[in-house]
Amino acid sequence: MGGSLSPCRASHHLDHHQETPFASKQAVKILLAEDNVVNRKVALSQLQNLGYQTEAVVNGLEVLEALSRKDFPIVLMDCQMPKLDGYETAAQIRRREEGSSRHTMIIALTGDNIVLVAPGGEQDDARGRRGT
Fold first, then answer.
1. Sheet containing 114-117: which strands, arranged edge to edge?
2. Predicted confidence (pLDDT) per residue in 13-32, tens digit
């Protein structure tokens, strides 16, 4: 151990008054991609109650269109959507970002898990397991 902190414990030692890119919820725009009307309404309500600026779309094609007209640093995306599913949409977003400094945080929502899609397409689930 040698005095080093695990990533989980290290977060308790952060200065919570430190300025971060997401310090102001008002400045963070979140794009929600969810085709289920009930899930979409619940998620929008929760995010707006938390103070985030949120816009919703219902499929992957609409995600790509929204990202081409507006800057959303975070995309919460259902994995199973019509027209273009969340996995292919994430892959297209990453291809669009190649060679640029832009990196959209993609949080893929599934029925039983949350998956973070890294810039190279790697996936980590909420339990810390690496996907293929």
1. 53-57, 29-33, 74-78, 105-109, 114-117, 123-125
2. 333 444 444 555 567 899 99
